[in-house]
Structures are given as C-alpha cells and as structure tokens.
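Changelog-linked ticket: coproporphyrinogen III example.
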Amino acid sequence: MIFVDTCFKKQSEYKPVWMMRQAGRYLPEYMAVRKSVSNFLALCKDYKKASEVSLQPVEILDVDAAIIFSDILVVPLEMGMGLKFIQGEGPVFDKTISSLDDIKSLNENCVNKLSYVYEALSLTREKLPLNKALIGFCGSAWTIATYMIEGKGSKTYAKCKKILYTDPELLHTLLEKINSVLKLYLEEQIKAGADVIQIFDSWASALEKEAFFNFSFKYMQELASCIKSKYPHIPIIIFPKAITGFLDEISGDFDVFGVDWATPLKLAKEKLSPRYVLQGNLEPCRLYSKEAIKIGVENILNEVKNLPHIVNLGHGILPDIPVENAKYFVKLVQGKI
Ligand code: CP3
C-alpha cells in the first residue's frame, strides 16, 4: 500500500494525498446522512452510517486514505462525561474536571464502550479498495484534557494552565489516566482494521516549550512507543499543531510528522530529524480559490520533490469549501490535471 510505504520512507510512484476533516460538512453527501440522524454523536455511534461517511471522500475525491468518522471527544464521553455538540458553539461537557475526586470518578475501563468505532473501522476496511489506507485516530492526552478541564473549547486554556502551574501532579494524574485509555483504544482500532494511526494534538500550541514537552509530548511519545512496540508495521502520524519553535527537539517512536499550515515546510525539513516523513501542509483557506490552490500545491511539491511525502492540508477543511475545489486540489497533487 503506497500510503503505508510512504509513511515508512519508501520511494513510491506518487505522493499520497488526503485531507484532515475530509469526512464532513462541505460534502452534500455527508449532509444528507447527517440529516438522517438527530445529532453528530448519533452519527458517530451508528457504525454503518459512520462507515458510509468515512468512505465518501475516497469515492468522491479519490483521496488515498479514508479517516474513520468519529471524534477525539468520544473518549472522555465514554469515560463518563456527558457531551453535546451545540450548533455554533462546538463541544460542551456536562461537567468539568478540577479535582482528584473528579479524576477518580472517570471510568478507565471504557474501551469496550467504544465498540461503535471498531465496528465502523471493520466495515470500512471491508469496503475500502485494497490500495487505499484506513486511518484510525485519537486526540493527544493533553488536547483531550483541555476539553475535560475547560468543559468546552477555550481561547486561553486558563483553567488548564492554572492546574498546570499550581498543581502539576493533578494534571499528570489526569493525563496518565487518559493515556492508559488511549493505549487500549488505539490497539482496538488496529485490531479492527486501521492501517495507520494519527494522533491529533491540536492545542499543543497553547503551551510554552517546557510545558509542551512535559505535559503534551511526553504522553504522545509514550503512547506512540507503546503502539510501536506491539504493532511496528502500523505507521504513526503525529500532528502537534503550531510548535514551530521546538521542531529541532522533537524525537520519538512515530513515523510521520504532520506540519500545520503556518509552519513553512522548508523550515520543518531543516529542523526535524530526517528520519521522519512529513505530511502537509496546504493552508486550508487556499481551497477557496483554484488559483491559490495551484500556487500552494506547486510550492509544496517543489519543496518535497525527491522526498517521500504525504500531501494534506495544514489543518481541517472548512464546511463552506466548494467540493469542486477540493477535487481540484486532489487531482492537481495526483498530476491528473
Ligand atoms: O474527517 C475526519 O477528519 C474524521 C472525523 C473527525 C472529526 N473530528 C469529525 C467532526 C476528526 C479526525 C475530528 C478530530 C477533532 N475533533 C479534533 C482534532 C482535529 C482538529 O480539527 O484540530 C478536535 C479538536 C475535535 C473536537 C471537535 N469536534 C470540535 C472542536 C468540533 C466543533 C467544531 C466544528 O468543526 O464544528 C467538533 C465537531 C465535529 N467533529 C464535526 C465533525 C465532522 C462537525 C459536527 C457536525 O457535522 O455536526
């Protein structure tokens, strides 16, 4: 499988391409399925429908991989935190984590409760052409913890950082608990058919350097090591967003580093160890204009000409992107126009 080979640095005939958040609202076919269920989580839990929308981008855009349709927040949900996705506001939990008792109340033995994710993976792998990869994923312990502590998305992460600087051991206790669930969760995803794993650390950028390495990267690295020791043939992609300043100190048991759109690929190439393959990093808003896509793709392909590389956006696709432009992006990378 060329996607997997590329993750392992093997030269291949073409550069695989996919898009973060590719199964989503910009696709009318996604909206049709989305309207048939009462809410977003109901779609995640309906494994047949989740599989159907995971396959849509492969069928419609001919991307080289499907990412399983789910969310990083199903993990805290099944650890016992009530979750709602509110239109215009995003995810909101029915409680927040602020004490040791709160952490103790979280259910660590929740991996079986996530069976809808594994069922969606099995069905998707069954239906996916053999030359297309299936990506399983999770959030990093830090990124998941930010939602559990703040109760929703945050601009300042003040509650998280207050704990980080006043009671670091409490934060470590929470991160350890989340990570122990993630280890089993990713294992189950691999057993169900995931060919590749991506760990999203979307809020890595909230942390200063020392805090990033102690509270985020340490756990991501431990998770990657654990999976690698058991499943060395499964490539691991990490996506710690916007940590441009610390790239030269990144090292761990992963294969691919996802470069966000604000980090120049040239800089990532210079700063990161050459043992990692890069993924990325078209600015997602370039997808509003074909001309902007053309220039962006040319820049990326020039930068990685002779290197194994996975082409992607530098963060998720936005809901109002014209499908035609997303198709244009994929075709351009594939040299079909
Ligand atoms: O196509 C894919 O990439 C697979 C599915 C996927 C979703 N969320 C579906 C989704 C993946 C990989 C995620 C990851 C995720 N979820 C992250 C990390 C990646 C990133 O974008 O930084 C984060 C931080 C979340 C948490 C989350 N989920 C937020 C903040 C929101 C609301 C914001 C929004 O875009 O509406 C979600 C909801 C969500 N997750 C939607 C989708 C398709 C939209 C809900 C809907 O369709 O009604």
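Closing comment: Example verified and attached. The longest strand covers residues 133-139. The CA atoms of residues 147 and 154 lie 8 Å apart.
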